[in-house]
Amino acid sequence: MPRLAFPPSALRVLTLRSFVLWALVHALTFVALAMMQGADSVGEAAMNPARPNPLWVTAVSTMLLMVDVRRRGERAMWGNLGVSTTQLATLAAMVCVAGEALLAVVLP
Amino acid sequence: MPILVAECVTKSFGGNRVLSAGSLRAEPGQVRVIFGRNGSGKSTLMKIASGWIAADSGVVHFRGRALLRPRHAVLARGGLFYLPDHELLSNAFTVGWQLELFARHFGRRTARDSAARAEIAHLVDRRPWQLSGGELRRAELALVLARGPECLLADEPYRGIAPADHDRLTRIFRSIAAEGCAVVVTGHEVPTLLEACDHVTWCTAGTTYELGPPAVAAAHEEFRRGYLGMARMERVTVDRRSVNP
Questions:
Q1: Which of A30, A49, A54, B113 sits at 20 to 30 Å (Cα–Cα) from B87?
Q2: Contact B73 A83 (CB under 8 A)
Q3: Would the CB atoms of B101 and A73 count as touching at under 8 Å?
Q4: Which are the contacts of A67, defined by CB distance < 8 A and separation ≥ 6?
Q5: Which ipTM was obtained for this model?
Q6: What b/e string do you get for B135-158 counting C-beta neighbours within 10 Å, with b at 16 or more?
C-alpha cells in the first residue's frame, strides 16, 4: 500500500491548527473592517455587511501557519516525516478555502 | 557503494564564502565523522547534503541519483534523516506522541522499542522542554530509531551533554550503523568521536580532506597541527591507548 504523504495524526493536528488560525484571522479582520467603517461595539460590528477578502484571509492564515511551524521549531520534524513546506502551505490554504466556502454558504 | 554523496559543493553567505569545494560521503554500515573548526562549513555541508539549504553549486547523489536541488522532504521519504543541532522535537507534543507518529508512519520499529533502546522509556510522557540536554539527545535518537533511516546526518549530537552520556549516544550510533545505516556526524569531541567512527573527514578552509580511519587521521600531521593542536593530540593518543591497550 502506498504511504500517505501526511501521517493521519499529523494531518489532524495541522488541520486543526490551520482552522484555528483561519478562524482567528477571519474574525479579527471582520471586526477590524467594521471598526474602520465606524462601528462602535462588537454587536454593531457583527451587523456590518462588509466581509473580509477571502483571498487575503487565506494568504495571511497560510503565512501564519508557516511562521507558527518555524516558531515552534517543527520544520525538522515535519521534514523528516517527508512533509515539505509546500505541502504544509497547501494544507493550510485548503483549510482556509474550505472555511471561506462554508461561510459563503452559511452567511447571507 | 555510498548512499549519499555531496560533491564539489560551494556556498556563500553574503560575501563570505564558507565552502569552496566541500564533499561528503555516507557509506552504509559506517559511522563517519567530520571535524573542523567553528565556521569551517561542516554544518553547512551537512545541511546542503540533507537538502535543508541549497548550495550555490555542486551536486548531491542520493541512492545513485544526481540531484542539483535536493529537497529535504523528498530525501527524507527516501530514507534520509537529518538530525539538526537543535530543534528536532516539538515542545507542543509529548516525546511518546512523536515517537508514535514516526513509528506508525514508517513501520520500522515500535515507539516502545525505540524508547527502550534509547533508554528513555520512563520519559515518553514528558514534553521535550522538560528533559535535560542528554535526555533530549537520547529522545531525538529514539526518534531516529523509530524512523529506521538508511542514512543519518547528525549535526553536533554530542554538544552540550555530559561525558557520561557520550557513551550512550555512541552505542546508539554504532547500533544504527550495525543495522546498515550510513551515519555521518560532526562535532568537536575528539576522543569520543575517534572512538565512535570508522572514517574521518577534515573540513578546513572551505574544502574537505578524506583522512581515512581514525588511527590514520590521528597521525596526520596537518590535521594534528591545524585542528587538534599538538598538546591536545598527545592527550587524545594517550586516551585512545588507555581505552584500546
A1: B113
A2: yes
A3: no
A4: none
A5: 0.88
A6: bbbbbbbbbbbbbbbbbbbbbbbb
A81 contacts on B by Cβ (under 8 Å): 76, 101-102, 105
For chain B, the farthest-separated pair of C-alpha atoms sits apart, in whole angstroms, at: 49
Touching check for B104 and chain A: CB below 8 Å? yes
Given an 8 Å threshold on Cβ–Cβ distance, is B88 in contact with A9? Answer: no
Q: Which residue has the cell 543519518?
A: B152
* Amino acid found at B104: R
CB neighbourhood size of A106 (10 A): 7
Give the bridge partners for B11, in sequence order: B19
Give pairs for B115-124: CB < 8 Å, separation 24+: B115/B142, B117/B142, B117/B145, B117/B172, B117/B175, B118/B142, B118/B145, B118/B172, B119/B168, B120/B95, B123/B95, B124/B94, B124/B95, B124/B96, B124/B99
Percent of chain A topping pLDDT 90: 57
Nearest to B184 by CA among B37, B9, B10, B47: B47
Read off the pLDDT of residues B51-95 as tens digits, 9 standing for 90 and up. Answer: 999 999 999 999 999 998 999 999 999 999 999 998 899 999 999
A35-82: pLDDT as tens digits = 787 766 666 666 666 788 899 999 999 999 999 999 998 999 999 999
